[in-house]
Amino acid sequence: MTVLDDLLTRLRDRDAVIGVVGLGYVGLPLSRRYCEVGYRVVGFDIAPDKVRRLNDGKSLIEHIPDADIATMRQSGFEATTDFSRAAECDALILCVPTPLNKYREPDLSFVVNTVESLVPHMRPGQVMALESTTYPGTTDEELGPRIAARGLTIGETAFLVYSPEREDPGNAHFSTRSIPKVCGGATPACLKAGVALYDQVIDQVVPVSSTRAAELTKLLENIHRAVNIGLVNEMKIVADRMGIDIHEVIAAAATKPFGFVPYQPGPGLGGHCIPIDPFYLTWKAREYGVHTRFIELAGEVNSAMPDYVVAKVTAALNDRQKSVRGSRILVLGIAYKKNVDDMRESPSVVLMEKLRDLGAEVAYSDPHVPVFPPMREHHFDLESVAADAATLGRWDCVLIATDHDKFDYDVIRDHASLIVDARGRYRDPLPHVVKA
């Protein structure tokens, strides 16, 4: 039996040990899914507090209850900061961040540091899968040589695949199991290992010809959204100047049964993928002498939306003979999208910073984020405040930045003196509601 045959057998018999590296919004749901079907899972993370909480049966993510973590623990799940335990695993799945640096260039430090922490403990018969969003060539150029330097031969004694994450936190219509999984291998043997790794836990695995094709697939998915959101954000500005409600227009256009997909405007892009992924492709495209003008233009439009919203707040306060400086502004919703606690790249935080820099006294209300969490680039020492009938009148302006369903929009409408609505919650004209 070859090394590959032995690995395939272990994966298909669910005797393999699965190592998931990075226990955030991608890695934790994936770990849960592998536990559900009977694999033993070792979760790796560099944050001791995360590891401690998970081993105590406590969840790190709002939409995964503590009871699920307790069930995982009963099935053998264990979290650790000890990367030497990678030797125990038959599969190592990397779910680590791929942010941008201050020059808006790809920052692969999390991926590279993770691989370099794992490689000294790798052994023949393992498959490594990268799920982090990145530019085409990352798996071949960054992971492959490091594995080979360990003395392992990719496609013979070690197997390397790229399979992009497709998590959508808060979406009740899709789960880790039901979202099709794209997978590309460094070699045909690697692809076999990757398909065997995922087809036990995902309903549909979609094989592609290479890791680079899989990497570009993920970028296309998110750039598609970024470009279309950029389009509708620009249309919002045009419609506003013309005195037309863009949300009415989108709803009417969406009645066309073909050739139109509705996208909603907002105060900017959020989440780990859509604000970042276009820059990964534009950076890599320059290596091939290609200037991605269309993608970059959409990025410029989307990046400008927080300034557009701040200008709306400023004008609305001016109309009431108030300046931003000294005004008390309550931001409703600081997660990047509705009904989740995920704050990665949230435009709400950018709005808070811009308003604070202009001299406003800024607070926030978010039922999903009770305390402003530590973030790499943003710092607020704040806790969520109530947005109810007794308190709304205290604010000079209430800015709807993320439209969680838990907010009572009737109460907000009736008790806030000024509302700047960046999410289109109020469709009827109201004298104290400004659409942004």
Walk me through this protein's architecture.
The protein has 436 residues and is an alpha/beta fold. The protein has two domains: 3-209, Rossmann fold, CATH 3.40.50.720; 304-435, Rossmann fold (3-Layer(aba) Sandwich), CATH 3.40.50. It is 38% helix and 13% strand. It contains 14 helices and 13 strands. It has helices at 3-12, 27-36, 48-55, 66-74, 109-118, 138-148, 188-198, 211-242, 246-253, 277-287, 293-303, 305-319, 347-357, 409-415; strands spanning 17-21, 40-44, 78-80, 91-94, 126-130, 158-162, 181-185, 205-208, 328-332, 361-365, 397-400, 419-421, 433-435. An eight-stranded mixed β-sheet has the order 3-2-1-4-5-6-7-8, sandwiched between helices. The chain has a five-stranded parallel β-sheet with strand order 10-9-11-12-13, covered by helices on one side. Helix 8 (211-242) crosses helix 11 and helix 12 packs across helix 13 (347-357). The longest helix has 32 residues, at 211-242. The N and C termini lie far apart (64 Å).
What percent of the residues sit in helical stretches (DSSP H or I)? 25-40%
Going by helix content, strand content and strand pairing, the class is: alpha/beta
Morphology call: globular
Total discrete domains:
2
What do we call the CATH topology of the largest domain?
Rossmann fold
Output the helix-strand order.
HEHEHHEEHEHEEHEHHHHHEHEEHEE
> What would you give as the CATH superfamily of the largest domain?
NAD(P)-binding Rossmann-like Domain
Unreliable runs, pLDDT <50, ≥5 residues?
A: none
